[in-house]
Description:
Order of helices and strands: HHHHHHHHHHHHH
Oligomer: single chain
Distance between the termini: 47 Å
Low-confidence stretches: none
Helix content: over 70%
Amino acid sequence: MSIHRSHKIFGRTVKGLIAVLLMLLCTYPMIYVLLSSFKSSDDFLHLASYQLPSHLDFVNYWTVFEQGRILTYFKNSIIITLTTVILLLGLASLAGFGLSKINFRGKKSLLFYFNLGLMLPMQVALIPLFYVFSAISLLDTYPAVIIPQVAFSLAFSIQIFYSFYKFLPNDIVEAGIIDGCSPLQIFTKIVVPVSQNAFLTVATMQGVFCWNEFITTYTFTKSISMKTVTLGLNDFVGMYGLTDWGATFAMIILTVLPTLLVYFLANKYMLAGLSAGAVKG
């Protein structure tokens, strides 16, 4: 065997070991939580934290549905996430199309204004928004949670659509104009159908972000009937002053399942949309 071939095999082996190590580091927390969700109370008392459960015990999942309010939390999270994503897609796609394809006075200033939003964290506006929402009796409602999330996610979403539309061939738009379409008809009938990757990218990223969001919901809601899955998880940990670790891990698994499912289904389109935006932008 030649030295060159030996070096090549050694390099591949090292790369493979590094890849396996990175995969274990990334997946171990999830595997640990999954296995712990099947442990009984005796397992938590007598087994080391890294050991496998003595048997698969589904009583923790039954406890979550019986004692928790998980269905209410899921309902609230679904309503907030879907409304936020739909509003974001509509507003950001129209803004990105207008900024990239329509020439008007103040276009560069408006784009700069939207880009400034990328540098403004949501936390700086929480206290002023709390006073405003309190004054107009909007606290503990869905709009109080949805409006800030749409506003602070708009800059990033517009940037993705702007990068995608900027390099969309003008011939497509001009063909619509020749056929007598209005700007809105060109957008809805011609541009949207060829922008599926951009729409799926924004929907997936912002949907996962909204589902896992904690601080906005914690600040602007107070009743149990308005809590989301992330707030519900926090309540479950401290229930009755004790921590049922088995049920807590089961609740974590149920909470992350929707986001994992969405990610695996839309992963291909999301990467394609991000790559297109990165290369073209």
